[in-house]
Amino acid sequence: MNLLHLPSGVLTIHTNQNLLLNKLLHVGLRQNPKRGFLLISKILGKHLPVRPLQMLESYRQLAAQIPASDMVTTFIGMAETATALGQGIFEAYAKHNPSGSLRYISSTRYPLDFPTFTFEETHSHAPSHYIHVTLQNQAYFANTKRLVLIDDEISTGQTLLRLAKAFLGLAPKLEEIYLLSLTDFLGEKRDALLSAFPVKTYSLALLQAGLNFEAEATWEVNLPQSQAPLPHNAPHSAARVGCEPQGFAPSHIQTLARQIAAREKQVQVLGTGEFQFEPFLLALALEKLGLDVHFRATTRSPILEFGVITERLEFADNYGQGLPNYLYNCSAMADIPIIACAETAMTNYLPAGIGAVAYVDFTKLPPFGGIA
After folding, report:
1. Reading across the β-sheet that carries 2-6, which strands appear in turn?
2. 314 contacts: CB under 8 Å, gap ≥ 6
3. Into how many domains does the chain fold?
4. Residue 324 belongs to some domain of the structure
5. Are 123 and 35 in contact (CB under 8 A)?
6. Residue 233 domain-assigned?
7. What is the CATH number of the domain that holds 305?
8. Residue 263 resides in a domain
């Protein structure tokens, strides 16, 4: 048992795998009155920099836990934190099951000009998720027999339960569900949660443990203040509207990596918000070319300075909404050039003084995947 005294309350983690627990995560403070703690992954590549090959290994390990099947399968990765994780697991599974009928889509915070179904992540700073139901997705969902839901961590599972129930309305043939995560903290509540899903459901993770949080009554914190969001400029990306397997080495990513490798030996590759998988592929290609590479992404998640989080930078998002975005602990890597990747044409969105930044506008590269 691990007892952690936070300013926001007491967090208890029940596990007999402390070495693995410490390998996988830190504990931080959310700037969110709904939940006073945050499990900060050491291998996700979101809030903290991570080696791309380490991220790839986690994708392979989790994908290997999914039983092989020829059933029509839909994979869904959770925005914004798990979009790279979700697509990475999807691609790793597809690589070893090439004959399967597989489709990936991520949830998104951005409505587009398609019908959607929505579900809520009630403890989040941005609770509403959208799944875009294009005509192609609608036809595929209708024949889906297996659903794989992917998040970086599962603490209550209620968000995934709401998603599964909403998805069932479009998938009358659904037979089984797999919940995949780096860490599953359902503990003694696991069986009860899984039995609440509409079809047979399994939870697969690198670590399964239990968690309890007792909030401090005197703890007070408010969400960051922001103006009403403006219309966004998020595009119809492959993951956001659905795609088939693309692989880990698309040619235009390899070309870009060789161009960067010709002038750099050490870089930070930065994704932006939900746009993580393609920047991860660039980071992976650079690391395979021999560069010293770390990957992470900007985020809308407000984390307070505490524990491993020693510094917070706030700036406006690059999706044109004027919402606050964040990067953490930048000073420690200030001398390492940043390759900032975005799926929008907006550049210079990072705060001044962050270091040398080269912006890559992926909208000017060949399209990644098919757009429905």
Report:
1. 2-6, 9-14, 210-215
2. 224, 324, 325, 326, 351
3. 1
4. yes
5. yes
6. no
7. 3.40.50.2020
8. yes
Positive or negative CA dihedral for 170, 151, 227, 122? Answer: positive
Predicted confidence (pLDDT) at residue 360 exceeds the cutoff of 60:
yes
Return the SS3 of 370: coil
Encoded tokens for 69: 């099947």
Which range of residues forms the domain containing residue 283? 247-363
Calpha distance 171→278 (Å, rounded): 29
Give yes or no for residue 46 having a pLDDT over 70: yes
In angstroms, rounded to a whole number, what is the distance separating the alpha carbons of residues 320 and 274?
14
Q: Which of 2-6, 27-31, 118-122, 364-368 has the lowest mean pLDDT?
A: 364-368
51's tokens = 């080696």
Cα dihedral 180/186/187/189 (nearest 10): -120
Backbone angles phi, psi at 272, to 5 degrees: -130, 115
| Better pLDDT: 370 or 272 | 272
pLDDT of residue 127: 64
DSSP 258-285: HHHHTT-SEEEEEEBTTB-HHHHHHHHH
134 token code pair: 């294009």
Which residue in the block uniquely carries the two structure tokens 């307070």?
304
Q: Are 324 and 348 in contact (CB under 8 A)?
A: no
Q: Which residue has the tokens 């005197």?
A: 218
Assigned domain for 258 exists: yes
In angstroms, rounded to a whole number, what is the distance separating the alpha carbons of residues 110 and 77? 15
CA distance 91 to 148: 13
Q: Which of 193, 179, 187, 192 is nearest to 213 (CA)?
A: 187
Per-residue pLDDT, averaged over 74-101, amounts to 96
Per-residue model confidence (pLDDT) at position 123: 46
Give the per-residue pLDDT at 294: 98
Residue 247 zone, left/alpha/beta (φ > 0; ψ -120 to 50; rest): left
Task: Determine what percent of the chain is predicted with pLDDT higher than 70.
Answer: 96
> Which of the four pLDDT bands, split at 50, 70 and 90, describes residue 121?
low
